[in-house]
Design brief:
The structure holds 2 protein chains of 2 kinds. Chain A is mainly beta. In chain A, 0% of the residues lie in helices and 47% in strands. The radius of gyration of chain A is 13 Å and the shape is globular. Helix content of chain B is 0%, strand content 56%. Classes of the chains: A mainly beta, B mainly beta.
Chain lengths: 117, 108
């Protein structure tokens, strides 16, 4: 596809359930980011991949959160034993190079809206 | 102290006025700076990037960077109702960090 694709777009999970959120970045994009955005807040950094390498996972809020990008393309964010405070929009973003490279642009997907009940 | 700070607003300006949005950051080693616009229920979209001290203009938008003061701003000239959105400041060093955003309303 032409843009960053995320699925599912909407997910309602019962507390304690495990969820998996998928991100298909733009083809050829090296960098991939996951963010968590609560209502009325800015995106909070979760983790960053460069190809298949997870270079930074300092933003993952607990060991219930896990992300992978095994072949350097599609990425999955997994949340185990979901809790109500996990309710948020999970945004995936990708870019052709490092964001610090001049002229490089990060493109966001439409997000996966997670509600934990 | 949050890494990227913005006034949450809301900021309200009349149509045709200049809207001024401000951002400060804590990591002096930050290298690249971005402004994103986010409409309600939508994902962020990049409107400006700036890498060097000074001003950068693109149409009605001007980004200003002062690394000594660790300060970034965005000016929107001739504001339009369609500019009403949340504006997010983002800073890159080893990864990309966002501020909480400033909600702008442009009144017709």
């Amino acid at each position: 596809g032409a843009g960053v694709s995320q699925s599912p777009r909407y997910k309602v999970a019962k507390r304690g359930q495990d969820v998996a959120l998928r991100c298909d970045p733009i083809s050829g994009h090296v960098s991939l980011f996951w963010y968590q955005q609560a209502l009325g807040q800015g995106p909070e950094f979760l983790t960053y991949f460069q190809n298949e390498a997870q270079l930074d996972k300092s933003g993952l809020p607990s060991d219930r959160f896990f992300a992978e990008r095994p072949e350097g393309s599609v990425s999955t964010l997994k949340i185990q034993r979901t809790q109500q405070e996990d309710s948020a929009v999970y945004l995936c973003a990708s870019s052709f190079q490092f964001p610090g490279v001049r002229g490089n642009t990060i493109y966001f997907g439409e997000g996966s809206w997670l509600t934990v009940v | 102290q949050k890494e990227v700070e913005q006034n949450s607003g809301p900021l309200s300006v009349p149509e045709g006025a200049i809207a001024s949005l401000n951002c400060t950051y804590s990591d002096r080693g930050s290298q690249s700076f971005f402004w994103y616009r986010q409409y309600s229920g939508k994902s962020p979209e990049l409107i400006m990037s700036i890498y060097s001290n000074g001003d950068k203009e693109d149409g009605r938008f001007t980004a200003q960077l002062n690394k000594a003061s660790q300060y970034v701003s965005l000016l929107i000239r001739d504001s339009q109702p369609s500019d009403s959105a949340t504006y997010l400041c983002a800073v890159w060093r080893n990864d990309m960090r966002f501020g909480a955003g400033t909600r702008l309303t442009v009144k017709p």
